[in-house]
Model the fold of this input.
Amino acid sequence: MAAPAVTSEPDTPLPTPSRRRRALPVLVRVVAALAGGGIFYASYPPRTDWYLAPLAFALLAAALRHRSARGGFLYGLCFGLAFTLPLLTWLQSFLGADFGPFPWVGLSFVVALYMALAGAAMATVSKLRGGPVWMAALFIGSEVLRENFPFDGFPWGKVAFGQPEGLFLPLASIGGTALLGFAVIVTGAGATELVARVRDGRRRRALVLPAALLVLPIAAGAASWSLVGTDAQAGTRTVAVIQGNAPDDGINLMYDTPILRRNHLAATEQLAADIKAGKVAKPDLVIWPEVVTDLDPDPTDDPELAKAIADVGVPFLIGGRLIQNPQTIQNVVQVWDPATGPGARYAKQKLVPFAEFIPLRSISAAVTPFVADTRDMIPGDKPGALPVDNTTVGVAICYEVAYDQVVGDAVRAGATMLAVPTNNAWYGPGEMSYQQLAMSRVAAVEYGRAVAVSATSGVSAIVQPDGSITRQSGLYTAATLVAKVPLRTTATLATRLGGWPERVASLAGLAALALAVGARLRHRAGSTT
Done:
């Protein structure tokens, strides 16, 4: 009998050892990038593990080292998502379960995209001499881009804002958040390069540069503490911060302004009673949080507020919505003197997109649940330097403390202390308030000024010029903090340099990227001839 015909499907080749070896590093690098992003989040406030941030960037650099731009994009995206998704969970408290996770995930993905772009560029320059320097410069450049584009940007999650204490912090007084973030990144990338060169058996001379990049930023930060001054150069002021509390109501807080006003009036009345009873020292200045009342174009039409201020008997900074007409609304801080009444005011310059103004309304309506109820606020155009009883107070309203330009302009205009009125009650009892407080602590060191943070529901705090906290409230509780702060006139080097450190870092990174791309193009052209 004839043997049956044998048929077979085309063979599917089994993975060869060489293929497995090529595939394994990709998986390892993805894991390293994800772990790096997770560790970066773990280093962030309210946790105090600032020293984990260099480790996070060491893992990112390990994933990116000598990779293609395409691979760098993937690893940068993994790093970014592992960092931003847990960092921004407070958006869920704001919008609530009714709107699903899409705004939170969407914003996290957008922020992570900037880190993905940074990853692609960092991988490209990683083969250059001094690669860790150019990698750090490019990451800072991506932060600069994110801080400005689009719609005035979103600077939340900058490397520097995770360093409100520790050895790197004093570098903020020299080169601002750009130098502070650069030092953290270059330390981690330098450590990776050093380990890689030791593993490859490179000569000792080849280890000098990465070893220096690992050690010098830490040493420079530790040595720079001597530059951080806390002395009172223009006297002191006793400041009272009012935290009247607010309901944990998420997005519905937009309808709760009467409750905010009532709570803060009650806390002010209690402060007046405590002063009269001798329980607390009479302050020189009282600060209310952001938008806790509506203000008329003629604020003297508010006798209830005027009486509360008169009962305390000192000047106030009142955070409110100035409603000039239905189309013209501003987020302002109003100076109110008990003797002379309302005075100068500052209007918020950096408005929150999709909250205080709605870009691309027809598109935004599909993703933003309150477009129909939101009228665009009008941004201010003057520095927040307010004269208050022979003291110039620099004001940054809430989100603005993340912008070097806003705070720096106020200090350069003569501010001898800073105030940050904020309304964080929207975002629930999560980490958002602590993340923002860290920004105020970094700003204190960067500009050499004490900072009074007044929050509707916490965290309120009195921050000294070295970033340390004198007084701090809890979340969702009524509290009044009274403390003495120094007034300072010295301009730090960071104040004088302004935006130059971030410009230099960005341009240096772009120049290195152009050099690396040019070298690759020449190599490809040579290999085809």
Notes: The two ends are 62 Å apart (CA to CA). The chain has 15 helices and 13 strands. Confidence is low (pLDDT under 50) at residues 1-23. Residues 265 and 308 are 7 Å apart (CA to CA).
